[in-house]
Design a protein that fits this description.
The complex is a heterodimer of chains A (115) and B (114).
Chain A: E1 9-13, E2 18-23, E3 32-38, E4 45-50, E5 53-56, E6 61-64, E7 70-75, E8 84-94, E9 100-105, E10 109-114
Parallel strand pairs in A: 1-10
Antiparallel strand pairs in A: 2-7, 3-4, 3-8, 5-6, 6-7, 8-9, 8-10
Chain B: E1 4-6, E2 10-13, E3 19-25, E4 31-38, E5 42-51, E6 54-57, E7 65-70, E8 73-78, E9 87-94, E10 104-105, E11 109-113
Classes of the chains: A mainly beta (115), B mainly beta (114).
Chain lengths: 115, 114
């Protein structure tokens, strides 16, 4: 069962690149890695998902090393509006063959972006 | 745009009361989820459902039950509310075609049990 560990909090300034790392030492072969963003009084919102190597979309990049025991969410040139809690999610809803998998959220990293 | 709505944003109940939390999604999603979110603990899965009348236990199902009579609606039931069930409850849904999919979350219900 994958257990995830993230830093509790991080500070940054506008315009900087922010990297948030999630450790998941016992990730299973089937597991995907997904990152969500949550603003106060809202539910989490999907940012990016990957399985291995690097994934990039319009808002972030996700770096996953070959051993997949960690992953790093990279936010380029953050702004004040990126202040939020970021969660990594490791697991899969269903395994190959259809058996129930496991979805494990990290405890979240509170990112504060200052002007 | 996917919309997941929850019946209440804030709820105050007394110990021993039966509590219903309702969730509705408008995108014909197969999967629906209930999580609770507590400071320092992140999100923990209570139950999920992959079809009408189907349910699977998550990590912390004790003290909760669920009901899915219609595809768009997933209810979380606290049969006899206790103070340790004071928490933020989040509902989510996903398409249901893959093994790991994007989940779309509602705004949450903050429940206080006195």
């Amino acid at each position: 069962l994958a257990k995830t560990t993230q830093p509790i909090s991080m500070d940054s300034y506008e315009g900087q690149e922010v990297n948030i790392t999630c450790s998941h030492n016992n990730i299973a072969t089937n597991d995907y890695i997904t990152w969500y963003q949550q603003f106060p009084s809202q539910g989490p919102r999907f940012i990016i998902q990957g399985y291995k190597t690097k994934v990039t979309n319009e808002v972030a990049s996700l770096f996953i090393p070959a051993d997949r025991k960690s992953s790093t969410l990279s936010l380029p040139r953050v702004s004040l509006s990126d202040t939020a809690v970021y969660y990594c999610l490791v697991g899969v809803l269903r395994n190959y063959g259809g058996s129930q998998g496991n979805l494990i959220f990290g405890k979240g990293t509170k990112l504060s972006v200052k002007p | 745009d996917v919309k997941v709505t929850q019946s209440s944003r804030y709820l105050v109940k007394r110990t021993g009361e039966k509590v219903f939390l309702e969730c509705v999604q408008d995108m014909d999603h197969e999967n629906m989820f209930w999580y609770r979110q507590d400071p320092g603990l992140g999100l923990r899965l209570i139950y999920f459902s992959y079809d009408v009348k189907m349910k699977e236990k998550g990590d912390i199902p004790e003290g909760y039950s669920v009901s899915r009579e219609k595809k768009e609606r997933f209810s979380l039931i606290l049969e006899s509310a206790s103070t340790n069930q004071t928490s933020m409850y989040l509902c989510a849904s996903s398409f249901g075609t893959g093994r790991q999919e994007t989940q779309y979350f509602g705004p949450g219900t903050r429940l206080l049990v006195l």
